Amino acid sequence: MLKIAITLAALAAVPGAALAQSEAQPPLEKREKRVDAPPISAYKIILVGDSTMAPGSGWASVFCAYHVKSSVACLNLGRGGRSTRSYRAEGSWAIALNEAKVGGYKATYVLIQFAHNDQSTKAERWTDLATEFPANLRQMVSEVRAAGAVPVLVTPLTRREFRDGKLNNTLAAWANEARKVASETRTPILELNRDSAKAVEELGAADATSLAMAPPAADELKAARAGTTLRPRPAPQIPPSDDMPKIGPRGRVTPKFDYTHVGEAGAKVFSKIVAYDLAVAVPELRSQLLP
Questions:
Q1: Residues β-bridged to residue 7
Q2: 131 burial class (0-12, 13-18, 19+ CB within 10 angstroms)?
Q3: What does the DSSP assignment read for 123-148?
Q4: pLDDT, tens digit (0-9, with 9 covering 90-100), for 176-229
Q5: Looking only at Cα atoms, what is the longest distance across the chain?
Q6: β-pairing verdict for 162-163 and 166-167
Q7: In this predicted model, what pLDDT tens digit does every residue of 106-159 receive, in sequence order?
């Protein structure tokens, strides 16, 4: 009893701060001798494109979240509704180039994927397939190199429209123009159009509906099962801002079913394809990419 009493008295004499310190951090004599960390070999990947790449509706945020190591700064600058022309006109391309010029990285890569909105008929978006679109891509490639970064072209993600049981790849011609620019400029290219089309064809029209942002309606699924998808329905109206909470985040992405944009399941499928294709096209990045 006497020994216990002495021990308790000794513990009581130790200041609380000292006990807390010993628990929070080992004493100096138990720590390794301090050295400086070696310099990091960090990389940067900048993703430039349209809504099929953008946060909330495309594959690129999932690519950044699951397919690069912590030594890679991955920046998704995909924007919905943009073409090679409107992306530059609004100033987004200047932002991307400024990001490409930031130092401190062993190498910076700029992945460029357009075509969906170049194919559009909207006034601020459309470009001519045979002239403007390839010229715009060539200019982007040149400016990325002038900024000290490495351009990588990406052929457009396929749409998931079917006719009589076969995929109707309406972007194949645009993908071919991107291939020509890649060949002419000796630029690495990711064959996302080809490889996403293959993946969608293997799923078939009905199962491919699961890749969308929202589930299909009964008639859309019935048509897909028959082998010919219906025309895309109009996007739902954005609810009035009065319905939003008064505090906290107020931004939103309205989920919709169509054959172009992707939800989480679709983003996982296509980002995995991009990671594989990037490792093949740019071997220098293989050690930085996750399957």
A1: none
A2: exposed
A3: TTT---TTTHHHHHHHHHHHHHHHTT
A4: 999 999 999 999 999 999 999 999 999 999 999 999 999 999 999 999 999 999
A5: 96
A6: antiparallel
A7: 999 999 999 999 999 999 999 999 999 999 999 999 999 999 999 999 999 999
User: 241, 209, 269: which is closest to 62 by C-alpha?
Assistant: 269
The more confident residue out of 65 and 18 is 65
Residue type, 238: I
Contact (CB, 8 A) for 205 and 227: yes
- Evaluate whether 178 touches 153 at the Cβ level (below 8 Å): yes
Q: Residue 266 in contact with residue 44, Cβ under 8 Å?
A: no
> Phi first, then psi: what are they for 153, rounded to 5°?
-85, 145
- For the chain, the residue count is 291
- For residues 204 and 125, is the Cβ–Cβ distance under 8 A? no
Sole residue written with tokens 């071997």: 283
Q: Where would I find the H helices in the chain?
A: 2-13, 16-24, 60-66, 84-89, 92-100, 132-146, 172-185, 192-208, 218-226, 264-281
The order of strands in the sheet holding 189-190 is 72-76, 43-49, 107-113, 150-154, 189-190
Angstrom distance (rounded) from CA 176 to CA 134:
10
Query: At what angle are helices 218-226 and 192-208 packed, to 10 degrees?
Result: 110
